[in-house]
Amino acid sequence: MARTRYAPDHGLTRRMVLTMFLIGLLYVVFVGVLIAALGDAWPLVIVLVGGLFVAQFWFSDRIAAFSMGAREVTPEQAPELHGAVDRLCALADMPKPRVAIADSDVPNAFATGRSQHKSLVCVTTGLLRRLEPEELEGVLAHELSHVAHRDVAVMTVAAFLGVLAGLITRMALWTGLFGRAGRNNNQNVLLLLIPLISAVVYVISFLLTRLLSRYRELSADRTGALLTGRPAALASALTKVSGQMSRIPTRDLRQAEPFNAFFFAPALSPGASLGRLFSSHPTLEQRLDRLAKLSSQLGG
């Protein structure tokens, strides 16, 4: 991993390695069951899984930008935004990512990409309208921390594998139940077990990514605030963004909810639950408490 001036987080590194190992092991078992159930069709499974994985990993930044309706902007089009990114990249001694803006009133930001040299940082128009320059810089430092630590790449892969479980199951059911005949009893039993195994794989993947996501947000808060030296500015941005979510139309929030694991702050529609077990982010109180302690340490 390329070195930057972002403070290293060995706890995050250990969790990323463990998460990818467990999810990888899970999917080796899952694909093995599919190969046994599909018989001669197993090459199709390997080609589909491999092709989708490579496409998702290689084009993750473009897929995320397209899904959010984001457009890349030049320094002439967004001078203040580019100026903030330039300052932070120089401070962190890291390559500058591509910069994008999503036309959405939901105040948020995210980073994506497979490496520091192939990354993108995106902010919404709602965020730009609501934050002061120091607050915006705190949010950008948080997002660039994800890029520097490469946890955004790990989350991209982990989230994709969860979705892949359902996709492979549908393919298996169509090719197995409707496209082939003459299977033996063992193959029929395996085929009937595929939906159940897929559900188990999805649930375990979901929980593993949620555990990693909550820790990586705390890590990005800390390292981003250490880089800028202004934990209070990041805390102010968090408070402002979280407080503004209740004023966003429900339809817009629901459209943004699938991207919560990658957002700076979760976009939750009224009535949505932020249960501890299933949350993609730590609670606002926990994040603010950590930043307040960091501010006291820096002040001391």
From TrEMBL:
Pfam families: Peptidase_M48 (PF01435). It is a multi-pass membrane protein. Binds 1 zinc ion per subunit. Its EC number is 3.4.24.-. GO terms for molecular function: metalloendopeptidase activity; zinc ion binding. HAMAP family: Pept_M48_protease_HtpX. This is Protease HtpX homolog. It comes from Streptomyces marincola.
